[in-house]
Design goal:
- The two termini are 13 Å apart.
- 34% of the residues are buried.
- Helix content is 0%, strand content 61%.
- The chain is mostly beta strands and 175 residues long.
- The strands form two sheets. Strands 1-12-3-8-9-10-5-6 form an eight-stranded antiparallel beta sheet, with no helix packed on it. A four-stranded antiparallel beta sheet has the order 2-11-4-7, with no helix packed on it.
């Protein structure tokens, strides 16, 4: 079920989905990102999760594999704070940035694992090279009091603001 579409038309620090969208109606979500760019070069795209509607964020760990699609380059990163969707995208021209998708499975009753996350993305850098990212992650708050109810997407690395792109949030209904 499509829950929200957020289109960035001017620079913003974050894109957030709060507890009016991340509810107990759904245990699983998909976010599609299209044409996302930043006002700064060399930006990483990260996702954070919260159990208290964005007041504080849960500790995340993620790992990512990347591969150059038109260059001979590949690598792996692990134990990354926050859920990393891509790294080192360039964002100051009309033809750079990236696309991708994230799937999140929330836990209603596990005290140690809040959610499991998986994503894929493709980024075009200003130098013309394309990179693909495949990522896995988990958040662990060590608390069973509340479930995840807030998602934040933000630039890190080269910093800057998100200045163009579309986020679509989908929910998978519980059976």
């Amino acid at each position: 079920v499509l829950l929200n579409t957020t289109t960035i038309s001017s620079a913003v620090a974050n894109v957030n989905f709060d507890n009016t969208l991340i509810t107990t109606t759904y245990n699983s979500y998909k976010i599609l990102i299209e044409g996302l760019s930043s006002s700064a070069d060399n930006f990483d795209l990260d996702m954070q999760v919260s159990r208290n509607n964005g007041t504080t964020f849960v500790s995340s760990r993620s790992a990512h594999n990347w591969i150059g699609l038109n260059v001979s380059s590949e690598g792996f990163g692990h134990n990354v704070t926050d859920f990393n969707i891509w790294r080192d995208a360039e964002g100051v021209d009309a033809e750079s940035g990236g696309n991708g998708g994230i799937e999140i499975v929330l836990s209603d009753d596990a005290a140690l694992v809040d959610c499991a996350m998986s994503s894929w993305a493709c980024v075009k850098n200003q130098d013309g090279n394309f990179y693909a990212y495949m990522n896995r992650g988990v958040t662990t708050s060590n608390s069973s009091s509340d479930r995840v109810n807030y998602l934040r997407f933000k630039c890190s690395g080269g910093a800057g603001n998100l200045d163009k792109g579309t986020f679509r949030l989908y929910g998978y209904k519980k059976s």
